[in-house]
Design brief:
The chain is mostly helical and about 220 residues long. The protein contains eight helices and no strands. About 15% of the residues have low confidence.
Length: about 220
């Protein structure tokens, strides 16, 4: 996965006055406290948050847009918005929830803006995970030629049917399956109750099961 670097040009127009730097041990602080330190002018806190979340956010955006360059650009925009929001940040929810809400909104907006360009695009739910090197739902590491063919057919079917899910269902599946987020976290991102989130995921997975009956 490529490394994210904040492009200085994107920071034009932001406050350029010298900021204070602190020597605190950020690894011992929770994310909300680090964000509050950034609000008070500690740019080292921002650097720490970028290093901590850049790969997960790029990975999440890539799952949404399936384009590495676009994923990196959107991830950069996520962190830019975090920086711009530093003065008004309130630790009312988990920082990660707030961060993924920004990422989700950007991903949805991008999908809407480029809908006409991605008629043939795919959402690769079962591709090899770049972080773990593992491929979900593959029991045998050395399958037969016939098994490989069946698996490719199954992957194509999954991609098509995930792409066809309603936006919220698709986002919920991505957060649940690949980000390991629980119902409450997903609900906070999508602004749904925990029970509504469970229902949303149930409908999404039920749709996929129904569409993929021949592969189960």
């Amino acid at each position: 996965m490529a490394t994210l670097a904040i492009n200085p040009r994107l920071l034009e127009g932001l406050q350029t006055a010298e900021v204070r730097r602190f020597s605190g041990n950020f690894s011992q602080m929770d994310d909300a406290a680090i964000m509050l330190a950034l609000r008070d002018g500690d740019m080292a806190g921002f650097d720490f948050l970028i290093q901590k979340y850049r790969k997960p956010i790029i990975h999440f955006m890539y799952r949404m847009v399936h384009n590495q360059a676009v994923a990196e650009e959107l991830a950069q925009e996520v962190f830019l918005r975090v920086y711009r929001s530093r003065a008004t940040y309130r630790a009312e929810a988990r920082f990660s929830t707030w961060l993924y809400r920004i990422a989700t909104n950007l991903g949805v907006n991008h999908a809407r803006d480029t809908r006409h360009e991605r008629a043939a695009s795919m959402v690769y739910l079962d591709e090899t995970d770049s972080e773990t090197g593992m491929t979900p739902d593959v029991a045998d590491a050395t399958p037969s030629a016939e098994a490989n063919l069946l698996r490719r057919e199954r992957l194509n079917a999954i991609r098509q049917h995930v792409l066809a899910l309603p936006e919220r269902q698709r986002m919920a599946v991505l957060m649940h399956k690949y980000e390991g987020m629980d119902y409450k976290q997903i609900g906070d991102v999508l602004k749904l109750s925990e029970s509504a989130t469970k229902s949303l995921l149930f409908r999404a997975y039920q749709t996929l099961r129904d569409k993929l009956k021949s592969f189960i």
